[in-house]
Specification:
By secondary structure, the chain is mainly alpha-helical. 60% of the residues lie in helices and 4% in strands. Helix 5 packs across helix 6. It starts with 11 loop residues before the first helix and ends with a helix.
Length: 154
């Protein structure tokens, strides 16, 4: 499923274990296995030589980078409060992080139509997210400044 990009190598047994866990996760979430190395029926949204493919192929970058990205996202009070108030992160953090990870994998490696549908779903969900931080500052999940913040942290 994931082939190491050569940037940072994991020991082979650990790489196989990470692959097995990732494949199991995909089967649980998608109901069937999706081969992210060669999307079925159509090309992916991004080409295999893209920076996104190179980064996501590296399990060390994905796991360590993913945790770091979440911590950095939460450093912005409007993003933090939006996540806290409008998602299941507070009570189901792991499940919420898994869904986010799946969305990222599908948008990078999935067939173009599935990636576009995933992106449309995320945009639609974010369109319903607005409110005020605990300090009273307004936020809306489609605010370009907040979207830039989240993109930069990722």
């Amino acid at each position: 499923m994931f082939r190491n990009s050569g940037i940072i190598s994991l020991p082979r047994p650990l790489e196989r274990r990470v692959d097995t866990l990732a494949q199991s996760f995909m089967r649980q979430r998608l109901g069937s296995q999706m081969d992210f190395s060669t999307p079925e029926g159509e090309p992916a949204l991004l080409p295999p030589n893209s920076v996104s493919w190179r980064i996501f192929k590296n399990p060390v970058a994905v796991f360590i980078g993913g945790v770091t990205a979440v911590l950095l996202e939460l450093a912005e009070p409007r993003v933090r409060d939006a996540i806290w108030q409008h998602s299941s992160f507070r009570s189901l953090a792991l499940r919420r992080l898994q869904r986010t990870g799946l969305a990222a994998l599908v948008t990078v490696y999935g067939p173009r139509s599935k990636a576009k549908a995933m992106i449309e779903d995320v945009v639609r969900m974010h369109g319903r997210v607005s409110g005020r931080t605990s300090e009273g500052e307004p936020y809306h999940a489609t605010d370009p400044e907040l979207l830039d913040w989240v993109q930069a942290t990722a």
